[in-house]
Specification:
The chain is mainly beta. The chain is about 5% helix and about 40% strand.
């Protein structure tokens, strides 16, 4: 039998659904900051769109002083900006909610990270101007399909308040990790909204429209809303900023280890500010020790951390991890349960067995 060389072994995305394609990243295999497009998680509401990129133009219209249509070539001439950004699905870790909630049962891999290059949205809006009555910026994608709750045919569309849309770090991206954005991740243009859950980063941008009222599209007013109560919509509010969070990449949950020295490692991220501390507990939260950062800490980017654990006691052990950001946000002991299962960020917890 022919020996399989280790170099031929490749990690694959974990399939959650095929139509539309939803696959998560095998988070334990990620070592670098720039996740390859082959391991970048995929989140879709509809099938992939069909459109002619050779005749691609981006119109900006609505409550502006002068509507304008940009060619892709023109957009490429503007001064660019490159940002390292975490993109996390709002449903990341949905599988961990108790009681369970309906929806794609994402585990810990609906998250990826890389470098996005593009032009600030506000640069394009300078050419059109904003009417005094302008309230929100709606970005519509080419992806379109039928909603199961209404049987309505809709494009995936989201809006941003003016403050976020005009932030210099909100960009219309055309490159990922130094190459044109892969088609499955939004080619040729994708909105990147750093610090917000990834539903805001609309793929395959079709048009941008400035409106004078609150956007009521279903992916804004029905989905991507926190519903704290199971049987009513009271106290609901929109999903926006990424919660402070962390994940253990090594060891795996329920893994069997030998006594000795082990490296515990993982990533931490947040939507506001940057990660300032990651703590670990090996005694069910009675005491906590600081982990070491093994990468830089930056706004919008994830941070790698590690901890060296010397263990001589056999048996079952629980490992807890919690992250803190520069705004003082700390992972809570329990998540904020909500009916659609968004924003899970409870203290990371795994079990291992020492033999």
């Amino acid at each position: 039998m022919k020996k399989v060389e280790s170099s031929t072994v490749r990690a694959n995305l974990i399939t959650r659904s095929l139509i539309p394609e939803n696959k998560e990243t095998p988070i334990q295999f990620l070592k670098d900051d720039n996740v390859s497009d082959k391991l970048f998680y995929r989140r879709n509401h509809f099938s992939y769109p069909n459109f002619l990129t050779s005749f691609y133009y981006l119109p900006i219209e609505g409550f502006v002083y002068s509507s304008k249509t940009f060619s892709l070539e023109e957009i490429l001439t503007f001064p660019p900006k490159t940002l390292k950004v975490v993109l996390e699905c709002a449903g990341d870790k949905r599988d961990l909610f108790k009681p369970k909630v309906f929806g794609e049962q994402w585990e810990k891999g609906a998250i990826s990270h890389g470098s996005w290059k593009g032009v600030p949205l506000r640069t394009l809006l300078q050419f059109t101007g904003l009417h005094a009555d302008a309230k929100e910026i709606v970005v519509e994608g080419y992806d379109v399909g039928e909603r199961t709750d209404s049987n309505e045919i809709v494009h995936f569309s989201r809006s941003l308040p003016l403050e976020k849309a005009l932030d210099s770090n909100t960009i219309i991206a055309y490159e990922y990790n130094g190459y044109p954005i892969p088609f499955k991740h939004g080619y040729p243009l994708r909105l990147i909204v750093p610090g917000w859950y990834a539903m805001a980063s609309v793929k395959w941008i079709k048009r941008i429209k400035v409106i004078d009222k609150k956007f009521k599209g279903p992916f804004q007013s029905v989905d991507y809303v926190y519903y704290p109560h199971e049987d009513n919509n009271n106290e609901s509010f929109p999903v926006t900023t990424i919660n402070v969070n962390s994940t253990i990449q090594k060891p795996l949950d329920m893994q069997i280890l030998n006594t000795g020295i082990h490296e515990i490692k993982g990533i931490a991220w947040t939507g506001v500010g940057k990660i300032t501390k990651v703590d670990i507990s090996l005694d069910n939260g009675a005491t906590w020790n600081a982990c070491q950062f093994t990468s830089s800490t930056e706004n919008y980017a994830w941070t790698h951390w590690s901890y060296i654990w010397e263990i001589k006691e056999q048996g079952e052990h629980t490992i807890l991890i919690k992250a803190t950001d520069s705004e003082g946000n700390v992972q809570p002991e329990k998540p904020m349960w909500n009916r659609k299962g968004y924003g899970y960020n409870a203290i990371e917890r795994i079990k291992v067995k020492i033999e």
